[in-house]
C-alpha cells in the first residue's frame, strides 16, 4: 500500500505536470472507482471543461483543485496509481478512469485491487468526508514541530509501532515506514510510548522527519509486486536503502547483528534485537 512518501511523490509530479491543463473528456470504465457518485454523469460533469489550478494533499489523499472551486479527490487505496500518458500508449488492463486534457495527453487511474477511488466535491464538502475529519498532523508540514510532537506523545500510552501507524496521531505512516523510523531511532516496535526518555522522544521525532524526507528524495518504495509507480511509470528507489523492513536475516547496517522478523497485529515487523531497545 502506498504510504505518505509515495503519495507525496505523486502529488509533486502532478503539481509539475498538470497544473494549468484543461480537461477535455473523462472516461469511467469501472463505476466502483467513483462509488461516492450516484451516476457517472455527475462525476464527469464536475471535471469536463475545468482547468486544474493546484495540487494539495491531506494524509494519503491527493486534492486536485479546479477553477470551478471544486476538488477532485484521489485515494490510491492498496494498489492504485496515477499514470501520465499520451493517447498513443495502450492503456493497462486495470485502467478504470481516464482524464483527457485539451492539450498534453491524459491521466489514467489504474488499480488492480480496486480499493482506490476518485470523487469530486466542493472545498466545503471536504469537511464532510469522514476519512479526512480525524486525520492527525502531517509530518511534512511546518506545524509538525518538536513541541507539538512531544505534547501529543505525552497524552498517549501505546506500543510504538501501533502509535506511529495510528492516523489520529500522525497521518500517512504505515508498516514499512514505521519499521524504518523505529530502526533509525533505535527503538523497539513493542516499547510503550510512555516509557521513552526525553532523549528517546527527540530521536523518534527526528527519525520521523529524516526517514520520510529521505524516502521522498528516493521516489518512494516499489516492492516485488511493483504496484507503486510514479506518475511516469518509474519504480521508486528507496527499497534499496531500507534498513529494517524486509531485511530478515541480513546484517543490521549499524551493528551487523541479523535483522529479525516478528508478528505484530497480523503484520510482519522487522527490527534489530541488538541496537533497538
Radius of gyration: 20 Å
Order of H and E elements: HEHEEEEEEEHHHHHEE
Low-confidence stretches: none
> Whole-number average pLDDT?
95
Class of the largest domain, according to the CATH hierarchy?
Alpha Beta
What is the helix content? Answer: 10-25%
CATH superfamily of the largest domain: MutM-like, N-terminal
Number of domains: 2
Strand content of the residues, in percent?
A: 15-25%
Indicate the CATH topology of the largest domain: N-terminal domain of MutM-like DNA repair proteins
Largest sheet: 4 strands, antiparallel
Structural class: alpha+beta
* CATH hierarchy: architecture of the largest domain: Alpha-Beta Barrel
* Overall geometry: globular
Q: Distance N terminus to C terminus? A: 28 Å
Number of β-strand runs: 10
| Total of DSSP H or I helical runs spanning 4+ residues | 7
Order of strands, widest sheet = 1-6-7-5
Write the layout of secondary structure elements.
Layout: H1 4-17, E1 23-28, H2 40-45, E2 52-58, E3 61-66, E4 70-75, E5 80-85, E6 95-101, E7 106-111, E8 117-122, H3 130-133, H4 146-153, H5 160-164, H6 175-185, H7 198-217, E9 260-264, E10 267-271
Antiparallel strand pairs: 1-6, 2-3, 3-4, 4-8, 5-7, 6-7, 9-10
Could you characterize the architecture of this molecule?
The chain has 277 residues and is α+β, with helices and mostly antiparallel strands. It has two domains: 4-133, MutM-like, N-terminal (N-terminal domain of MutM-like DNA repair proteins), CATH 3.20.190.10; 146-271, Helicase, Ruva Protein, domain 3 (Orthogonal Bundle), CATH 1.10.8.50. Helices cover 25% and strands 22% of the residues. The protein has seven helices and ten strands. The protein has helices at 4-17, 40-45, 130-133, 146-153, 160-164, 175-185, 198-217; strands spanning 23-28, 52-58, 61-66, 70-75, 80-85, 95-101, 106-111, 117-122, 260-264, 267-271. Strands 1-6-7-5 form a four-stranded antiparallel sheet, with no helix packed on it. The two termini are 28 Å apart.
Amino acid at each position: 500500500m502506498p504510504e505518505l512518501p509515495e503519495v507525496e511523490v505523486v502529488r509533486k509530479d502532478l503539481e509539475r505536470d498538470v497544473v494549468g491543463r484543461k480537461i477535455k473528456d473523462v472516461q469511467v470504465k469501472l463505476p466502483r472507482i467513483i462509488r461516492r457518485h450516484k451516476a457517472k454523469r455527475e462525476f464527469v460533469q464536475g471535471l469536463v471543461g475545468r482547468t486544474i489550478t493546484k495540487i494539495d494533499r491531506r494524509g494519503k489523499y491527493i486534492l486536485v483543485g479546479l477553477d470551478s472551486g471544486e476538488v477532485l479527490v484521489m485515494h490510491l487505496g492498496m494498489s492504485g496509481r496515477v499514470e501520465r500518458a499520451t493517447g498513443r500508449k495502450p492503456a493497462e488492463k486495470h485502467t478504470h478512469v481516464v482524464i483527457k486534457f485539451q492539450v498534453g495527453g491524459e491521466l489514467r487511474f489504474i488499480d488492480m485491487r480496486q480499493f482506490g477511488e476518485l470523487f469530486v466535491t466542493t472545498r466545503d464538502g471536504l469537511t464532510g468526508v469522514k476519512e479526512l475529519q480525524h486525520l492527525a498532523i502531517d509530518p511534512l508540514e511546518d506545524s509538525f514541530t518538536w513541541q507539538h510532537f512531544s505534547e501529543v506523545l505525552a497524552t498517549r500510552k501505546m506500543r510504538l509501532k501501533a502509535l506511529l501507524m495510528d492516523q489520529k496521531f500522525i497521518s500517512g505512516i504505515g508498516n514499512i515506514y514505521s519499521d524504518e523510523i523505529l530502526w533509525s531511532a533505535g527503538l523497539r516496535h513493542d516499547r510503550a510510548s510512555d516509557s521513552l526518555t526525553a532523549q528517546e522522544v527527540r530521536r523518534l521525532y527526528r527519525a520521523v522527519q529524516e526517514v520520510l524526507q529521505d524516502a521522498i528524495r528516493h521516489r518512494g518504495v516499489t516492492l516485488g509486486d511493483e504496484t507503486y509507480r510514479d506518475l511516469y511509470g518509474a519504480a521508486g528507489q528507496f527499497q534499496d536503502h531500507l534498513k529494517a523492513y524486509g531485511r530478515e536475516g541480513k546484517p543490521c547496517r549499524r551493528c551487523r547483528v541479523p535483522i529479525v522478523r516478528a508478528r505484530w497485529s497480523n503484520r510482519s515487523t522487522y527490527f534489530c534485537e541488538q541496537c533497538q531497545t
